[in-house]
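Appendix B. Chain record.
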Amino acid sequence: MKTDAEIQKHVMEELNWEPAIHSSEIGVAVKNGVVTLSGTVDTYQEKKIAEKAALKVAGVKGIAEDIVIKLSYHDQRTDTELADAAVNALKWNVLVPSDKNKVKVENGWVTAEGMVDWAYEQHAVRDVLASITGVKGISNLVKVTPKLNPADVKKKIVAAFERSASIDANGIHIENVGDKVILTGKVRSYSEKREAEQVVWKAPGVAAVENNIEVRIPSYAELGREL
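Structure tokens predicted for this chain:
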């Protein structure tokens, strides 16, 4: 099992490896496998990239994200300018049904509301807004309208898990509560836990995912037995 010092070292190396991040401006602290990211970045997108990079590292159990966005003079926009940019960006993105969504901006924080048919459309709204220069934060309140019954959704998720080479389907349990999917069980890495959640989001009609999967890091003795 990795020590906190080893996890910290590997997270810092992962941040250095990511070309979109100015890693020298990001601090990394680790306690009991939980990583705290601090410091400043230029954009909201860079902030989220740093978070995803840290989650890739084996042994990471969670993220506490305290990064502050420090906009340059040229990147600063009024709320009106951000709202106009957000509306146009959503309008021209083919993955987003812009006629079903609205945005509002307050102090650089963009809130999106509306309804879509698929989770990927909901996620596309978030990604589009994250790419806009000047955004300081995002609240994605867009809701997914379910179209399949829970039993069909569960069958599709189980089949997707079994097809995946990176997910141990036997270690994960699936429960449907209306349009919400609850995941429990144990996996060996945070990336596997994250991958399982991403697979669920691809299922039609899923509006919410509660990921209660535990990350169980195998001991060196267990790894030796497998070799």
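Further analysis of this model is presented in Appendix C.
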